[in-house]
């Protein structure tokens, strides 16, 4: 009995190991935007109709295919791998969805996984060619910072440049990543296209172009990071072959270059001598408080302008608010900015314009306003204080005492009763409804017996569904027919994309054969296909054309193919499939 139990356990374990597995294996789950990611989809049994995920956030190259089939001690080990190389197109966290494969009539799916793309990482952009020469030699992306030790809210500039030595050349370029300045107020500066300029890098003569210019105002003290800028570019690198004259043959290679991370140390503004009304202004400013007029008649209004002008962080602080007597009614201000933002820092003026309307005759003072800022040139705080402004209101009523106002406010006009506020009637009048009772009516008996009348229909439909479900061969044929139409439609969408077009067209042909001939992929040899199609009544020339299309799908992946050729192959496939549908 123990021997039988042991044998049963061994057979169960062997059955578990023999289960089909289909998994997705990424080379890494966190990478910089200047790195590459390899994703392998591995199956332990040969399958059909492989569908990769969408790869959102990446450019995918592939798939490359590898098959491993070995026998060890009489035990077969099989694996088939589809490999994709992914290039990030932007930063963020992306989900690589499920891939699907059909194995033995069953559909298997991989588990989705997340990939995080960060800013460029150091050392990942050095691409070497097979000749041993660096593909990016003599090419540098550099971030030049005007001041590495500023105060909070002191302007600094960051200029990203692409340096190219006189011995190197760069083709097309594309900016992969836009740096994010989380702890800064930032403004991109458009200084116009300056073209190629000459300069020096590490003491050597280089050509360079300006990629991006940014003005930054640090918003907190401490060690802050300036994020790198990444660029993808095409460069020419030598191969191991030479031409007739012995010169090395060149080929174009795509590489990624990044400026690298930079750090600045931001100093806090000094606490010693900081005024109580300091609101964060840093720079060199002037302060003005100007009324449109100081003498006015009752019913007229005046405008009070509070203005700061000069050079500094004009958009990053608030202006002081005037305090006026209760007899002057002051409205919310209209804020105006006349600020230019060059690479050296903001300059211009900001102002709040208040509208003030007097209520009574008399003279009313507007208290002095003060404005404080930190002067960068002298490294100390300065304060401006405006003069007191006296508003003379001529004409109109004279302000009365609070007691008089309260006495007048106590005299209220009585509200007269109108019809709309009359007492709500509480008595109701109910009237009988002349309608047939539902109980005992024709509708009552119809709804009562309708479920019993539907029972034979439900039984008939259930038997028909069971018969359809039990028809394994028929279901497989119908599924293959649907897949053939699906992949034929997919091939039409991929016209112009050689790799994906011929993969989809080949899948459409295979599923058409599975539907019409009731065969599996392992039986799809060309002699067998030809023999089966002819036995089903297909014409010889139609079968030959079908075999020719299959050959085109196999060879087109490894040979150059134009859009015209793909269109011809697609039209030819549609016409041949239509002809075979009629003939068999």
From TrEMBL:
<keyword id="KW-0812">Transmembrane</keyword>
<keyword id="KW-1133">Transmembrane helix</keyword>
<protein>
    <recommendedName>
        <fullName>Protein BatD</fullName>
    </recommendedName>
</protein>
<feature type="transmembrane region" description="Helical">
    <location>
        <begin position="444"/>
        <end position="461"/>
    </location>
</feature>
<dbReference type="InterPro" id="IPR025738">
    <property type="entry name" value="BatD"/>
</dbReference>
<keyword id="KW-0472">Membrane</keyword>
<dbReference type="Pfam" id="PF13584">
    <property type="entry name" value="BatD"/>
</dbReference>
<keyword id="KW-0732">Signal</keyword>
<feature type="signal peptide">
    <location>
        <begin position="1"/>
        <end position="18"/>
    </location>
</feature>
């Amino acid at each position: 009995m123990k021997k039988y139990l042991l044998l049963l356990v061994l057979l169960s374990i062997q059955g578990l190991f023999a289960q089909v597995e289909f998994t997705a294996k990424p080379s890494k789950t966190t990478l910089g935007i200047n790195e590459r990611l390899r994703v392998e989809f591995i199956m332990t049994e040969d399958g059909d109709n492989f569908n990769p995920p969408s790869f959102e956030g990446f450019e995918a190259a592939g798939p490359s295919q590898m098959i491993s089939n070995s026998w060890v001690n009489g035990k077969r080990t099989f694996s088939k791998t589809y490999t994709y190389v992914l290039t990030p197109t932007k930063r963020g966290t992306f989900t690589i969805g499920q891939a699907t494969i059909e194995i033995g009539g069953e559909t298997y799916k991989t588990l989705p996984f997340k990939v995080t793309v960060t800013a460029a990482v150091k050392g990942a952009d050095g691409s070497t060619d097979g000749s041993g020469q660096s593909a990016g030699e003599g090419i540098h992306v550099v971030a030049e910072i005007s001041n590495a030790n500023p105060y909070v809210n002191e302007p600094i500039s960051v200029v990203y440049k692409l340096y190219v030595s006189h011995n190197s050349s760069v083709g097309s370029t594309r900016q992969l990543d836009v740096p994010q300045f989380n702890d800064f107020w930032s403004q991109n500066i458009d200084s116009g296209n300056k073209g190629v300029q000459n300069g020096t890098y590490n003491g050597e003569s280089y050509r360079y172009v300006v990629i991006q210019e940014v003005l930054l105002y640090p918003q907190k003290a401490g060690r802050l990071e300036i994020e790198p800028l990444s660029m993808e570019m095409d460069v020419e690198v030598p191969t191991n072959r030479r031409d007739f004259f012995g010169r090395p043959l060149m080929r174009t290679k795509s590489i990624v270059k990044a400026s690298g991370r930079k750090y600045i140390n931001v100093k806090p503004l000094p606490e010693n001598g900081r005024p109580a009304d300091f609101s964060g202004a840093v720079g060199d400013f002037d302060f003005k408080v100007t009324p449109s007029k100081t003498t006015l008649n009752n019913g007229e209004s005046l405008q009070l302008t509070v203005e700061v002008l000069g050079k500094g962080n004009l958009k990053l602080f608030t202006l002081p608010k005037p305090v006026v007597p209760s007899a002057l009614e002051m409205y919310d201000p209209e804020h105006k900015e006349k600020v230019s933002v060059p690479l050296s820092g903001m300059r211009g003026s900001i102002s709040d314009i208040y509208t003030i309307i007097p209520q009574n005759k008399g003279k009313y003072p507007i208290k002095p306003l003060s404005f404080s800022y930190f002067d960068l040139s002298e490294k100390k705080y300065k304060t401006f204080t405006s003069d007191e402004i006296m508003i003379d209101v001529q004409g109109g009523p004279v302000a009365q005492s609070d007691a008089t106002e309260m006495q007048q406010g106590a005299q209220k006009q009585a509200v007269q009763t109108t019809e709309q506020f009359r007492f709500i009637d509480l008595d109701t009048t109910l009237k009988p409804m002349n309608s047939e009772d539902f109980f005992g009516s024709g509708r009552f008996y119809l709804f009562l017996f309708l479920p019993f009348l539907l029972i034979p229909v439900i039984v008939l439909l259930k038997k028909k569904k069971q018969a359809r479900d039990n028809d394994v061969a028929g279901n497989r044929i119908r599924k293959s027919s649907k897949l053939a139409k699906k992949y034929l439609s997919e091939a039409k969408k991929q016209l112009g994309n050689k790799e994906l077009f011929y993969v989809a067209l080949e899948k459409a042909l295979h599923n058409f054969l599975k539907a019409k001939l009731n065969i599996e992929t392992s039986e799809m040899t060309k002699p067998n296909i030809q023999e089966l199609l002819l036995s089903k009544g297909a014409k010889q020339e139609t079968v030959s054309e079908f075999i020719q299309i299959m050959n085109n799908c196999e060879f087109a992946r490894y040979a150059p193919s134009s859009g015209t050729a793909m269109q011809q192959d697609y039209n030819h496939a549609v016409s041949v499939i239509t002809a075979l549908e009629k003939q068999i």
